[in-house]
Amino acid sequence: MRNIVMLGVQGSGKGTQAEMLAEKFSVSTVSTGRLFRSRIEEGTELGREIAPYVERGDLVPKDIVCRVVADWMDAPSARKGFILDGFPRNVAQAEALTEMLAENGRTLSDVVYIRLSDEEAMRRLSGRRVCANRDCETKFHVDLHPSKRDPNRCDRCGSELVHRSDDRSEAISRRLAIYGSETKPLVEYYRERGLLREVDGEQSIAEVFKSIMEKFRE
Ligand code: AMP
């Protein structure tokens, strides 16, 4: 069974690749960031609690994140295999994930790491535009990958494109700093455990996907 974690800096394309892999392996995928943005928009109690963290680009407290992920993984759809995008984000969350899985006799099968330099991540995030439809959230870039039919509308579903508040320079710097100090150590953590499948993120979407599939065949 494929139980996969996607790892990579913001802007590395891991969300896009997670969706492509989910289709390929017929498993479900979740982005914790997207899930949190939905809760914030819906104005739920959880949404109100996490909004200040997400707005600043800070990590949401571990207990909240783990509760949300555990609920998602308990659903029948995730029991046939899953792809996590945006979780775990530090060693404490990685250990919580291992425990969560062990409780149900499950383990992680692979960790896909999409490598990208900080400079390229900054360039990609600062021009990023995201489809406002939470079921879509397709990502565009004003210069590198603009929407073709209308620069302000999503090519896939026609919804409005927005500049995420945490894709503005202050929050981007904060998110990249947190990635460097908290999340990047997970690369070595999972390499040591023999789970890492590393690919170069500075290629086209199709090439990155091809590289990932090659790693799965190795
Ligand atoms: P993302 O869409 O992955 O960039 O996530 C957007 C924001 O959601 C992050 O900047 C955090 O505030 C929050 N978030 C998403 N996933 C996690 C996580 N695993 N742990 C803590 N906070 C998270």
From TrEMBL:
Enzyme class name: transferase
Pathways per UniProt: Purine metabolism; AMP biosynthesis via salvage pathway; AMP from ADP: step 1/1
Domain of life (superkingdom): Bacteria
Molecular functions (GO terms): AMP kinase activity; ATP binding; zinc ion binding
GO BP term, pick one: AMP salvage
Binding-site residues for AMP, renumbered to this chain: T32, R37, D58, L59, V60, G86, F87, P88, R89, Q93, R164, R175
E.C. no: 2.7.4.3
Key word Cell membrane present: no
Pfam entry (one): ADK
UniProt GO cellular component terms: cytoplasm
Subcellular location: Cytoplasm
Positions of region (NMP): 31-60
Annotated ATP binding sites: G11, S12, G13, K14, G15, T16, R128, Q203
Keyword Transferase among UniProt keywords: yes
Reactions catalysed, as given in the entry: AMP + ATP = 2 ADP
InterPro entries named among the record's database cross-references: Adenyl_kin_sub, Adenylat/UMP-CMP_kin, Adenylat_kinase_CS, ADK_active_lid_dom_sf, P-loop_NTPase
Binding site for Zn(2+): C131, C136, C154, C157
Assigned keywords, A-Z: ATP-binding, Cytoplasm, Kinase, Metal-binding, Nucleotide biosynthesis, Nucleotide-binding, Transferase, Zinc
Known role: Catalyzes the reversible transfer of the terminal phosphate group between ATP and AMP. Plays an important role in cellular energy homeostasis and in adenine nucleotide metabolism.
Domain notes: Consists of three domains, a large central CORE domain and two small peripheral domains, NMPbind and LID, which undergo movements during catalysis. The LID domain closes over the site of phosphoryl transfer upon ATP binding. Assembling and dissambling the active center during each catalytic cycle provides an effective means to prevent ATP hydrolysis. Some bacteria have evolved a zinc-coordinating structure that stabilizes the LID domain.
Family: Belongs to the adenylate kinase family.
Subunit structure of this chain's protein: Monomer.
Protein name: Adenylate kinase
Organism: Candidatus Uhrbacteria bacterium CG_4_10_14_0_8_um_filter_58_22
Gene name in the database record: adk
